[in-house]
Amino acid sequence: MSGHSKWSQIKRQKGANDVRRGALFTKMGREIAIAARAGGPDPDGNFRLRLAIEKARSVNMPADTIKRAIERATGGGDADQYEEIVYEGYGPGGVAILVEAQTDNRNRTAAEVRSVFAKAGGQLAGAGAVAWQFEPRGVITIARMAGDPDEIALLAIDAGAEDVDTEADPMEVYTAATDLERVRRALEAAGVAIESAESAMVARQTVELDPARARQALRLIEALEDLDDVQRVTANFEIPEEVFAEVAG
Questions:
Q1: Which end of the chain is more exposed for a tag (fewer CB within 10 A), N or C?
Q2: Is residue 242 part of a domain?
């Protein structure tokens, strides 16, 4: 899991830029709406909605905007009908890439994703081509100042966590997708301050790229993430230290 913390830091940096453009609020609104439509408007009884709301709050999305997204999805206003689609493809060096999208126009989104892959030297693939290289996991991040890393790791494992990366900054706790909420609640009950908790697709194994191809792959991922309909992009390559310093610094 060592490479995931680098991805997380890049996502946080990218998120700050998205907020300035307003793009992230739009994507958060869609995630909230889909979660509310699927599981109801009560976050106490809808774990996915609760995660979406917490993520939206972490990027300072206004409470009124969150409320309107839930109301639109559950009959309190004009509801946009979005469907979730996962696209699979290959990037430079044969890197496996998953693109998770939420769209009201499947043909438009497919054309946009295909175009970005082609322009960046990648290739859109068929369903099942690369998905087997990833697995759904729960990922909980905890600030290093939250407590002794070893003690937090023991608490997490006792609560059902599968792995803890105490070297990452912030620390990362990995769970089975179905155990995310249980582990999160146990850590909070023990007084551990949680930075974030989310369901994610995590690469089973990662590949190494030389710096030039890593930069090219990151440009492809950024272009995909800039598409309005794309919620999340996941790839299975390790980011070389020099490239990570350039991007995250």
A1: C
A2: no
